[in-house]
Design a protein that fits this description.
Blueprint lengths: L2 H4 L2 H16 L2 E6 L5 H11 L3 E5 L2 H10 L5 H6 L5 E6 L3 H10 L2 E3 L11 E3 L2 E2 L7 H9 L3 E4 L2 E4 L3 E4 L7 H9 L5 E3 L2 E7 L2 E3 L1 H4 L3 H22 L7 H17 L9 H19 L30
Antiparallel strand pairs: 1-3, 1-11, 2-3, 4-10, 5-9, 6-8, 7-8, 11-12
Helix pairs in contact: 2-4
Length: 312
């Protein structure tokens, strides 16, 4: 009896279905489902319908289908499977898919064994919970101070129940839920992908594209500035180098003891600037007499108000 005969028809059909999906799509991804409630997964399927197919199967069947597909390195992706994993079949860019899945993250209640992703804070105020044994449970398990007011339990003051990185046990998870706190982030943990023969690891899938583009722009700008300083002639530097050379030649010509007719405007502009500077230095701090007390000038002895008048 062959090995194929020992395999159930259902398993054979499942392997063939996975192989068919591999054939139809350019990208195959792996996402962990341990922290994703059934309802959240159902909603995500609806959101992704038409762009991504989410399929779950047993690890051995996935490995067999991937290796039998004949796709380069796809068997290596199957070896990366850890925990409860779903396959993602899509033609989307895997990095854009990772960003999309991040954008669909929602808040959810803590479960026993979860690790606090942030400092969990119980705010002061009315819990809307009637008095009972929960009062002592809140004190013993979450270390919050309570009081009874208007027939309900109130939290006396803000209290940090868990620091980031601390584990949440079963009793604490239950109480946090009773208080309406949802400290966990629920999303598909997209941790590995295959795209047309290439394996894409987690660190690449979750790259910050905007930050990368900003770094590239900065690098281009710094490279251009360095090239200009070194006088390197390229397609990008030739124009600014020419402008710099023209400005330098004008500056040099203005200080030469010769007259260049084509630079009359530059000579006049330089003379005006120098005259204004001298005028400001000479008359700096002098107070002008009040208008009504200023004597009328004698036309025979009138002198200019400043050196600037020589040029206007």
């Amino acid at each position: 009896m062959t090995q194929q005969a020992n395999v159930s028809a259902h398993k054979i059909q499942e392997v063939e279905k996975i192989k068919s999906l591999v054939k139809d799509f350019k990208v195959v991804g792996l996402a962990k489902l341990e922290k994703v409630p059934a309802k959240a997964l159902h909603n995500l399927r609806d959101t992704l319908r038409g762009d991504v197919i989410i399929r779950m199967s047993k690890k051995k069947l996935i490995q067999r289908a991937f290796k039998e597909s004949g796709k380069k390195n796809l068997g290596e992706l199957a070896d990366n499977i850890t925990g409860i994993t779903a396959m993602l079949f899509t033609n989307m860019n895997p990095i854009k898919l990772a960003q999309f899945l991040e954008s669909k993250a929602v808040k959810g209640a803590a479960k026993p064994g979860d690790i606090a992703p942030i400092d969990i804070v119980v705010k002061a105020g009315d819990t809307k919970i009637a008095p009972g044994p929960i009062i002592s449970e809140l004190s013993q398990n979450l270390h919050v101070q309570t009081l009874i007011k208007n027939g309900t339990i109130h939290i006396r003051s803000d209290a940090v129940t868990h620091k980031v990185g601390q584990m949440i046990d079963a009793k604490q998870a239950l109480l946090l839920g009773r208080l309406g706190l949802e400290p966990m982030t629920i999303k598909l943990d997209f941790y590995s992908a295959w795209e047309e023969g290439e394996i894409i690891p987690t660190e690449v899938l979750h790259l910050n594209i905007d930050k990368i583009l900003d770094n590239v722009r900065l690098a281009v700008s710094e490279a251009l500035n360095l090239s200009l300083e070194l006088g390197m002639i390229t397609n990008d530097t030739i124009k600014p180098l020419m402008i710099k050379a023209i400005r330098s030649s004008f500056a040099l010509a203005l200080n030469l003891p010769i007259f260049i007719p084509e630079m009359v405007d530059q000579y006049m502009a330089k003379a005006t600037r120098e005259a204004q500077a001298i005028n400001g230095a000479v008359f700096k701090g002098e107070e002008e007499p009040e208008q009504e007390e200023e004597p009328k000038p004698d036309p025979k002895s009138e002198e200019p108000a400043g050196l600037g008048s020589l040029f206007g």
